[in-house]
């Protein structure tokens, strides 16, 4: 038995939603092919273009997630896993989450669907824990469930999917510098003053209200973050200027994608998205940083 699945790249945090909001992108992600073997060995084949990623099932995200699922099912089966990555690890576009989500989905399919989607998210979170030291769910929930997801609670795990305005375009720039999620998690403050908490709650409320009612003014007013962006922007050369460029063009909001270095902007239409993408390309070229620009939508 064999299956090939695709997991979309994702944007986590989405402005003010540190660790609680994720969205899936259209057209970019990762393919994973999985085949059941008669032996009880998990074989992860070399990953094209990424010779440095570990292939041992105890270290590779796919191996970690698959083993946990097979253990829980108490089955002794082997798996052959082939991964094709379109999203670079350390890009802030949920690369590790893609592998974790694709693995959880594929194992479940090959085992005739013993697990619920929420359980698959929980298994995929084990991969995130192995990569970043923390089992955040925002990337893997979006990769597995698609669309726009809110992690309402981690204990117990509760996830909401909400509709996202169809016209909103998403521009992503991936400057070719690496930021490790584990490092960019460590630098965040552990506490927040109450006035900032109140501002942050207002922002999230405005963003979610704006998204559910397609009210662009509310999206604009909610796309501000006091938790991760002010600190992580120090790790991302040019972030402040790139954000200003997007806002000048009229974008609904701009922030860091996950733990960076990728950044994203919500745009009102394709022309605006194209304009933001063009300006970002030139901007990074001036900084002598190679960049990939993706014009996408919610998946
Ligand atoms: N919410 C996580 C973080 C996402 O910001 O650290 C990492 O991609």
| Gyration radius, in Å | 19 Å
- How much helicity do the residues have? 25-40%
Average pLDDT value?
A: 96
Question: Based on CA inertia axes, which overall geometry fits?
Answer: globular
How many DSSP H or I helices? 10
Which ligands are bound? L-homoserine
Major β-sheet profile: 6 strands, mixed
- What is the end-to-end distance? 28 Å
Enumerate the spans where pLDDT stays under 50 for 5 or more consecutive residues: none
Beta percentage is: 15-25%
Task: State the total count of DSSP E strands.
Answer: 10
Helix and strand sequence = EEEHEHHHEEEHHHHHEEHE
What structural class is derived from the secondary structure elements?
alpha+beta
Subcellular location: Cytoplasm
Domain GHMP kinase C-terminal: 210-285
GO biological process, one term: threonine biosynthetic process
InterPro entries: GHMP_kinase_C_dom, GHMP_kinase_C_sf, GHMP_kinase_N_dom, GHMP_knse_ATP-bd_CS, Homoserine_kinase, Ribosomal_Su5_D2-typ_SF, Ribsml_uS5_D2-typ_fold_subgr
